[in-house]
Amino acid sequence: MIEFDGEQARVEHTQPGGGKADHPWWPPLGEGLRPRQPVVVIAGGFGSGKSELALNLCMGLQAGGERVRLVDLDIVKPFFRSRQARGFLAAAGIGLVAPEGELFHSDLPIVLPEIRSLLRQPDGVVVIDVGGDTAGSRVLSSLGDAFVSGGYELLVVLNTSRPFTRDVRGLVEMVRGIAAAGGLVPTGLVANTHLLGETRLELVLEGLGAVRETGALLGIPVRMLACSEKLARRLQPQAVGCPVLELRRVLREERLGGEWPLADGED
Amino acid sequence: MGCIMIFSGSEAAAKPRKLLMKGAEAIGEAAIRAGAKAYFCYPITPQTEVAEYLARRMPEVGGVFLQGESELAVANMLFGAAATGARVFTSTSSPGFSLMAEAMSYIAGAELPVVFINVMRCGPGLGGVLAAQSDYWQATRNSGHGDYRCPVLAPSSVQEAAELTLAAFELADRYRNPVIVLADGMIGQMMEPVMLEGLAAGEPVEKPWATQGCGGREPVVVKSLYLDPQVLERMNRRLAEKYAKMQTDEVQVELYNVRERHDLVVVAYGTMARICKTAIDRLGKEGLQVGLVRPITLFPFPVDAVHSAARHSAAGVVTVELSQGQMIDDVNLALGELGRSAFFGRSGGMVPTPDEVTRVFRDLVKRGAA
What we know:
The complex is a heterodimer. Chain A is of the alpha/beta class. Chain A is 32% helix and 16% strand. Chain A contains nine helices and eight strands. Chain A has an eight-stranded parallel β-sheet, sandwiched between helices. The radius of gyration of chain A is 17 Å and the shape is globular. Chain A starts with 5 loop residues before the first helix and ends in a 20-residue tail after the last strand. In chain A, 48% of the residues are buried. Chain B is of the alpha/beta class. Chain B has two domains: 17-204 and 216-249, 3-Layer(aba) Sandwich (Rossmann fold), CATH 3.40.50.970; 254-369, Rossmann fold (3-Layer(aba) Sandwich). Chain B has helices at 11-14, 23-33, 48-60, 71-82, 94-99, 101-109, 136-140, 158-175, 185-189, 229-249, 270-285, 303-310, 328-335, 354-369, and strands at residues 19-22, 38-41, 64-67, 88-92, 115-120, 152-153, 179-184, 191-194, 253-256, 264-267, 290-295, 297-299, 317-321, 342-345. A seven-stranded mixed β-sheet of chain B has the order 3-2-4-5-7-6-12, with helices on both faces. Chain B has a five-stranded mixed β-sheet with strand order 9-11-10-13-14, with helices on both faces. In chain B, β6, α8 (158-175) and β7 form a beta-alpha-beta unit. The longest helix of chain B has 21 residues, at 229-249. Chain B is globular. The relative contact order of chain B is 0.12. At the A-B interface, α6 and α7 of A face β1, α3, α9, β8 and α11 of B.
């Protein structure tokens, strides 16, 4: 439904110096952000920013010369999924694994058979974007046997502006729920507190604090902080204490215009 | 992960601040703040998140959450629960709303305040799961049989979805009538920052008709069966007066860039109105004056606002919808002697881009000038 054509993306993202690239120019991922395993599963609550994070990781990896595949495993809702950036991904040369034809638009519990073989033999990096909340993560349990022990990262994305993850209690419940539903142990947390265009630096840092506390309680490291490029420039590295992923909005919904979404991090 | 945890307060949760919410979640939370005591539902995309949200929240506030075996059951549960005077509601999407039509007529006939949320998907039939505005006729005329009407409120943002849900409960109590919140799938599914603080129920309305136990008074009966034709006609006349009062007192409309003179006037609601605003802003930079009349209440329809804006428009009026043309009937009625509205619409879950709408408006202005 929300189609992104590569054409539009090419116009918006130009090479430093102004030259147009064949596909969107993207900065390669910094060392601390690079996946430690060939399979990276991105889980989290609805609205935590999983799909944006998955798309940004893919773009950063591809820019660094990796062979990348994005698996859209969101089978719980038919709106606002990473597969809607298929034109954008294709322009960048990133393979998308999602149902085709009219099933592309469905929210049916479809797990494509090639996902299993990708998990067993990744051949590059495989980023998996699963659906929101415990309901969305449940699909992982059906693939449990295909995950190679120790061969994956499970990152749980957390946004403290969402109703049920406003505090540490809610965050802990979310991480535990996702782990239980998916049958996989989370390897890292991603602090991604945001209010779309109304995100302020204080909010990002407040969210990071709560995610840190959650990680300490659960014994899971904070793998990275994600925020818009604009806000990231204002962060004090020593205050953050983990790698920072500078997000570029891919899943914009330009047609809703005006107030939504504004440029990220407009203070 | 199996340790005992001690949490140090939840100041962050208590502090009033904006949250990032889906339209469906904001509707659920607004209903709780309106004092809804019971929510009956049957899941259907694209609004199941209302149910998901309330499955968790209703028990927290001592309310009832009940998933029925079908929409038919749900609508009849609403009848029974509303008869006690409690604030009750449901949410569904187009095919589910059709299934509720019979009970809705009974609810209107028994003059019970019930809020129905319809997050529209594309039809007809099972259609698809994507956003549409093709239940306009069904909502604004009446979905069931008999002489009845319901106020229909159409939000165009997540914040407004919350505010209109609250308003729907107030209207329902004030008029003893079902009220519909008609959102489209985009409003139900998209997330936006929302401020919920300050959303609270108004003064409680006396409900002497409610079946709460006689306690010494005469029994009351909640029903829609009147076999005596004279009695039923009196009842229908009284209902008609109620609907006429809604048409005088309850019209809500947003005017965007509406001035003395226009190159073109647009009528659109919900998600479609937002896309039109983007197009209007772009055309404004080209020096074209395009005004938007956005009905917030679809019934009562803002007849005067449409007529008044259309009086000085070089290229007339265009109605824009996510359907093949339903609201255009009301726009044409409102235009009266001014002529007929042009139409642009997409359906089947297709949502036009601002570019597409901008081109349509520009062409209409050109044709009007010629």
